[in-house]
Amino acid sequence: GKSRAALIPNSHNFPGFVSGLNGLDFLETLRQQVSAYNAEIEADTVTSLRRESEEFVVISTRGEVRVRRVILATGVHE
Predict the structure, then answer these.
(1) Would 44 disulfide with which of 48, 60, 66, 68, CB 3.0-4.6 Å?
(2) CB 67 within 8 A of CB 51
(3) Across all residues in the chain, what is the average pLDDT?
(4) How far lies 20's CA from each of 6, 26, 61, 75, in Å?
């Protein structure tokens, strides 16, 4: 919810964005790309992640889920 990327005034050197891109637009672009794959974005704290055969077991503050794919976004803590 409190992405540091949202504070970026204008990033340069992003392929496809010749004039640069501000943080809020960057985050919205990522959300749109994810929604095209019917993926769900969930903000949570993961305490454990392990691979079991063809899936991952994710343990978080909300419990355990088993998934085929994981996108790991670690963020920054101040």
Answers:
(1) 60
(2) no
(3) 86
(4) 14, 10, 37, 22
